[in-house]
Design a protein that fits this description.
It is found in: Cell membrane. It is a multi-pass membrane protein. Pfam families: BPD_transp_2 (PF02653). The protein is mostly helical. It has helices spanning 8-22, 28-35, 38-59, 62-87, 95-112, 118-139, 145-165, 167-170, 193-217, 219-229, 231-236, 241-267, 277-290, 295-319, 323-344, 348-360; strands spanning 176-177, 269-270. The chain has a domain at 37-179 and 190-276. The protein is built from 16 helices and 2 strands. Helix 5 crosses helix 12. Mean pLDDT is 83; it is low at 1-6 and 366-380.
Length: 380
């Protein structure tokens, strides 16, 4: 008669199998990529993006290099605005004012401290913008909805007017023109100036984006989303709501100021007409178009910001439109694209791409008879 009791080795086999099922090894490149530490993933992605920018600017002309650099600093400004609106839930209609502060800070440093290195100039311009964001964030901490939007809109209207009020210091309507060194002399024969400038812009942008990507997935990012979803619940859970909102304002202002400083570095000028209310509204429109709460959405928004205007100019030239109509045609195209995208995909371009990727991704089974849930990548 056979014994019904299992040997210890036989009884341990199911436990070993369960342990193996409980800690599945990564399979495939995607699973191995997701298994890497978050900071390492973001750094590797930034290095890959920098390599793509170098290759792209090596095969394009000067005009296209300038547009690629423009996509970079606009992406930084939109990402900063996305931190404020998409993560902390604060509405701002005056983000262009922080770009004004960054651009004019850079111009004044170049004109009055010409020996200052570029990296120190950018850091100081960012610090001044963060200080401005701190002051405005503290003042507006208790404002919500349309009151906050109105206060930031007043900022966007008032700051460019300072250039006319203090024309001797800020250059008046013509702004400030200056010269900045581009490609180092030792590399000037091998690397065009516009390519070097595009590399500097994108290197700066990618460093900040790595910081923002880690921030959005960290403790501060979770606190911002909690404040955005329900301030009362966030306060009851121990989150200092006012401090989180002011911190979001400071980070957003710093990104806007750095974007303005990079724009001044590219264009070698800072004029009040560049930072009008229309710029602030355009940044908000392309942020919604690209996708709120996503750094990838900032990229699609920046591409739209640069190339929709370019396509509008080409269309106006093809149709031989008047100057007034041609100047407003990009804003009309923004509006048409925004309405169409909101109706078709309310979560923007990045939301549509995420849905498309989830639909095309093959379903994997966890081994227990229920399909595994595809991972989401909110905030990337």
């Amino acid at each position: 008669m056979a014994s019904s009791q299992k040997s210890p080795a036989t009884a341990a086999e199911p436990k070993a199998e369960e342990a193996t099922r409980g800690t599945p090894k990564p399979r495939g490149l995607v699973a191995r990529w997701n298994a890497l530490p978050m900071l390492l993933r973001h750094i590797l992605a930034a290095c890959a993006a920098m390599g793509a920018v170098i290759v792209l600017t090596s095969v394009t002309g000067q005009g296209e290099n300038t547009r690629i650099a423009s996509v970079g600093f606009y992406m930084l400004a939109i990402a900063g605005l996305g931190i404020l609106i998409g993560f902390s839930g604060q509405v701002s209609l005056g983000h262009g004012a922080f770009m004004f502060i960054g651009a004019y800070s850079t111009a004044l440093f170049v004109l009055h401290v010409p020996m200052m290195p570029l990296w120190l100039n950018l850091i100081l311009a960012t610090a001044i913008s963060c200080l401005a964001g701190l002051i405005i964030g503290v003042v507006c901490a208790r404002l919500h909805g349309p009151y906050l939007a109105g206060a930031t809109l007043a900022l966007a209207v008032a700051l460019p007017a300072l250039a006319n009020r203090f024309s001797e210091f800020l250059g008046g309507p013509n702004g400030l023109d200056f010269l900045m060194r581009g490609t180092p002399p030792a590399l000037s024969d091998a690397i065009p100036n516009t390519s070097w400038q595009a590399w500097v812009v994108w290197l700066t942008v990618l460093i900040v984006l790595v910081f923002l990507a880690n921030l959005s997935h960290g403790r501060l990012g979770r606190q911002m989303r909690a404040v955005r979803d329900d301030e009362s619940a966030a306060a009851l859970s121990g989150i200092r709501v006012a401090r989180v909102k002011v911190t979001a304002f400071v980070i957003s202002a710093g990104c806007g100021g750095l974007a303005g400083a990079l724009q001044a570095y590219m264009l070698k000028t800072a004029t009040p007409s560049t930072f009008t209310v229309a710029l602030s509204l355009s940044l908000l429109a392309v942020l919604v178009l690209g996708g709120l709460g996503s750094l990838w959405g900032a990229l699609w928004g920046a591409i739209a910001m640069v190339y929709v205007e370019e396509w509008g100019d080409e269309l106006a030239h093809t149709l031989d439109l008047g100057t007034n109509v041609a100047n407003n045609l990009p804003h009309v195209l923004y509006g048409v694209l925004l309405i169409a995208l909101v109706l078709a995909w309310p979560s923007g371009v990045q939301g549509f791409l995420r849905q498309l990727g989830n639909a095309l991704r093959p379903r994997e089974h966890s081994g227990y008879g229920t399909p595994s849930v595809p991972p989401t990548h909110e905030g990337k």
